[in-house]
Specification:
12% strand, 285 residues, Rossmann fold, alpha/beta, single chain, 9 helices
Length: 285
């Protein structure tokens, strides 16, 4: 391709981008190989102790679905007994993203020939984008996902749950991506298994350190790869128990698992205001 033709192609692409075709639209749908697509992993605790929090789970899922954008990857995974083997994907997939591929301009620098080509490209962009949006209505997709998971989330009662195993699975999913990572934990945060029993033994710094050390030696320590973490549904006794639980999980995720969890984003009940703050906050240390 001649230099003149390359310059003409560049001029055409710039002209099309001026219409908002380079990812500046509200949905950011026109991106070739989107470099900043977000990976969302939602872990849903289905133990019997979380039944009273399930409607908050549904509200949190609604907010997550509203926040997912074209090109983003979403996995909604149940926290079950022996989560690595038994967890179910309630949803897994990438939200469809519109990609426009510019045509090749005429091999000339004559504007009388280039202008009709650019006008045709603009019209082709508008037509293809409209066709894509008719075929891939994101609100319909969000409603379909929400409808498909509601019954399971509201009614299923697992005999036991493995939160650490689910985190390990979540870390495995996050490790395959390079863009921003978000992890939503819909759980009471109360570990009751062979590793620990937060109901009988409060989660002290020493206990968390011991758990992480053992998990590292056994290659079971989750690696959350810098994911920003949000917790909804947490509860353990009164205010003192909740404060202990919050501190323990922030310590575990920030110091040992490689994620990022602020105490204000460790919630017993969903707060839309805090959820919005979580979406816009930067990584915290």
């Amino acid at each position: 391709m001649t230099i003149r033709r390359l310059l003409a192609l560049a001029l055409c692409v710039v002209s099309i981008c001026s219409l908002g075709a380079c990812g500046q639209s509200k949905e950011r749908v026109n991106r070739v190989a989107p470099p900043l697509s977000t990976t969302w992993v939602v872990l849903v605790d289905l133990s019997g102790s979380t039944l009273s929090a399930r409607h908050d789970y549904i509200d949190a899922l609604r907010d997550v679905l509203d926040a997912v954008r074209p090109g983003d990857y979403l996995a909604i995974v149940s926290i079950e007994q022996s989560s690595i083997e038994n967890s179910r994907y309630l949803y897994q997939g990438e939200f469809p993203c519109f990609v426009f591929r510019p045509g090749t301009p005429p091999d000339t620098d004559n504007q009388l020939l280039l202008e009709p080509f650019k006008e045709k490209e603009k019209q082709r962009y508008a037509n293809e984008k409209a066709q894509f949006e008719r075929s891939h209505d994101l609100n319909t997709l969000r409603r379909r996902i929400r409808t498909s998971v509601v019954h399971m989330v509201l009614t299923h009662k697992a005999p036991a749950t493995d939160i650490f195993g689910a985190l390990q699975l979540g870390g495995n999913l996050l490790s395959t991506t390079t863009g921003p990572r978000r992890l939503v934990m819909l759980t009471d945060g109360v570990v009751v298994d062979q590793q620990a029993n937060f109901r009988r033994h409060p989660p002290t710094d020493g206990l968390i350190s011991s758990l992480a050390r053992t998990q590292r030696l056994e290659h079971r320590l989750p690696s959350l790869h810098g994911a920003r973490v949000l917790v909804v549904g947490a509860r353990l006794g009164g205010a003192v128990g909740f404060a202990q639980l919050s501190h323990a999980w922030c310590l575990y995720i920030n110091r040992y698992a490689g994620g990022s969890l602020q105490s204000r984003f460790f919630m017993s009940r969903l707060s839309d205001q805090l959820f919005s703050a979580w979406l816009t906050s930067g990584h915290d240390n």
